[in-house]
Specification:
It is an enzyme of class 2 (transferase). It catalyses: 4-CDP-2-C-methyl-D-erythritol + ATP = 4-CDP-2-C-methyl-D-erythritol 2-phosphate + ADP + H(+). Its EC number is 2.7.1.148. By secondary structure, the protein is α+β, with helices and mostly antiparallel strands. It folds into 2 domains: 3-166, Ribosomal Protein S5, domain 2; 173-297, Alpha-Beta Plaits (2-Layer Sandwich). It contains 10 helices and 12 strands. Strands 1, 2, 3, 4, 5, 6, 8 and 12 form an 8-stranded mixed β-sheet that branches. A 4-stranded antiparallel β-sheet has the order 9-10-7-11, with helices on both faces. Helix 1 (76-88) links the parallel strand 3 (52-57) and strand 4 (93-99). The longest helix is centred in the middle third of the chain and has 16 residues, at 110-125. Bound molecules: 4-diphosphocytidyl-2-C-methyl-D-erythritol (CDM) and adenosine-5'-triphosphate.
Length: 305
C-alpha cells in the first residue's frame, strides 16, 4: 500500500476572451490563467484490488454546495484515476480522499483541480511513472482547465482552454474573493452567452496587449485596469445581484474587479495586504456574499505535498 498526497491550487482568469461556439459545442478561448493560493488536497492510497473509491470533506463548508460533489464515478478525481489506469494498463485500485477548500461551482476550477491532483497522486502511489507531457495529454481529456492546474503559475490558455503556453510575468498579486452562497453551472453560463449573442457576430478572442504588458512589468495598477471577462454579461444575466457585489469592491478601491471564470465568485485586486483587508472588510460589512477569502498568486500547480 502506497500513499501520495498532492496539493493543488484554484485558478482565476485574468482575462477571458470567448469566441463563437464551435461545432463540438465548446468555445475558443483566449485567456491568461493565474493559479492562486486556495488549495484542495487529494490523498491517494493504493489498493491491491481494482476498486476506485472517493470521499470528500471540507473544513470550510460554508455552503450547501459541498453536498453536490459526487462521491462516485462522476467525481472528476475518480475519472482521472480511471483514465490513468486505462492509459498505463496498471493493475490495482485506489482510495482517494479529497479535502476541499476551493469553492464548489465557483468558477475557480475546483473539480478540475481535483482531477489534476488525482493524476499526480495516483501516478506516484501506483508508480506508473508518467512524465509531465503524458500527464498533460491525459489532463486535456478530463476538462478544459485541467492542464493549467498541473502547470500552475501564470499561462496563456488557447483552444478550448486546454492549450497552455508560457507568459512572461513578474510580481505577486493580492486577491480578495467574494464567494456566493450558491454556485453557477459553467455549461449554463456558456449557453447564456450563446443566447445573448445569437444575433450578433462574436469575434475571435485575443489576449489584450495591455494585460500582457502589465504582467511583464509586474504593475498591479495596470493589471487591475486590464482585467476582463467576456462571460460577465451572461453570468450577470443569470445572477443580477453579482453586480452589487462587484460594486462593493470597486467602492472599496479595488484596482480591478471581475467575475472569476464563469462565476459566481467575484475577484478583486488589492495593492497590498492592508488594502486586501479593507476590501474584505467592506464585502463582509455589506453582506455582499456568503464568504470572503484573501489570497495571492501566482502559486505552483499540482505538487506532491
Ligand atoms: C470558464 C472556465 O473555467 C474558464 O477557464 C472554463 O472555460 C471552464 O472549464 P471546465 O469547467 O474545465 O470546462 P469543461 O469541463 O471542459 O466543460 C464544461 C462545459 O462548459 C462549456 N465550455 C467549456 C469550455 C469552453 N472553452 N467552452 C465551453 O463551451 C461546455 O458547455 C462544456 O460542456
Ligand atoms: N472533485 C470535484 N470537486 C468539485 N466538483 C466536482 C468534482 N467532481 C465532480 N464535480 C461536479 O462538478 C460541478 C462543478 O464543480 P466545480 O467546482 O469544478 O465548478 P467550477 O469551479 O465552476 O468549474 P470551472 O471553473 O472549471 O468552470 C460540481 O457541482 C459537481 O457536481
Amino acid at each position: 500500500m502506497n500513499v501520495a498526497t498532492v496539493r493543488v491550487p484554484a485558478k482565476i482568469n485574468l482575462c477571458l476572451g470567448v469566441g463563437p461556439v464551435r461545432e463540438d459545442g465548446y468555445h475558443p478561448l483566449a485567456t491568461v490563467y493565474q493559479a492562486v493560493g486556495l488549495h484542495d488536497e487529494v490523498r491517494a492510497t493504493s489498493r491491491a484490488d481494482d476498486e476506485i473509491n472517493v470521499v470528500v470533506n471540507s473544513e470550510l463548508d460554508v455552503r450547501s454546495e459541498l453536498a453536490t460533489v459526487p462521491e462516485d464515478d462522476n467525481n472528476l478525481a475518480v475519472k482521472a484515476a480511471k483514465l490513468l489506469r486505462d492509459h498505463t494498463g496498471f493493475v490495482g485500485g485506489v482510495d482517494l480522499a479529497i479535502r476541499k477548500v476551493i469553492p464548489v461551482a465557483g468558477g475557480m476550477a475546483g473539480g478540475s483541480a481535483d482531477a489534476a491532483a488525482s493524476l499526480v497522486a495516483c501516478n506516484d502511489a501506483w508508480g506508473t511513472g508518467l512524465g509531465r507531457a503524458d500527464l498533460e495529454f491525459l489532463a486535456a481529456k478530463l476538462g478544459s482547465d485541467v492542464p493549467f492546474l498541473l502547470h500552475g503559475g501564470n499561462a496563456v490558455g488557447g483552444g478550448r482552454g486546454e492549450t497552455i503556453s508560457p507568459v512572461l510575468a513578474r510580481g505577486s498579486y493580492h486577491w480578495v474573493f467574494a464567494i456566493a452562497a450558491e454556485g453557477l453551472s459553467t455549461a449554463a453560463v456558456y449557453a447564456e452567452f450563446d443566447r445573448l449573442n445569437a444575433d450578433g457576430k462574436v469575434p475571435e478572442p485575443k489576449v489584450p496587449d495591455a494585460l500582457l504588458a502589465a504582467l511583464r512589468a509586474g504593475d498591479a495598477d495596470a493589471l487591475g485596469d486590464a482585467l476582463s471577462n467576456d462571460l460577465t454579461e451572461a453570468a450577470l444575466s443569470l445572477r443580477p445581484e453579482l453586480q452589487d457585489t462587484l460594486e462593493v469592491g470597486i467602492e472599496a478601491g479595488a484596482l480591478g474587479a471581475i467575475l472569476s471564470g464563469s462565476g459566481p465568485t467575484a475577484m478583486f485586486l488589492a495593492s497590498d495586504e492592508q488594502h486586501s483587508l479593507d476590501i474584505a472588510f467592506a464585502l463582509t460589512s455589506a453582506a455582499a456574499c456568503a464568504d470572503v477569502v484573501q489570497s495571492h498568486g501566482p502559486v505552483p500547480g499540482a505538487r506532491l505535498a
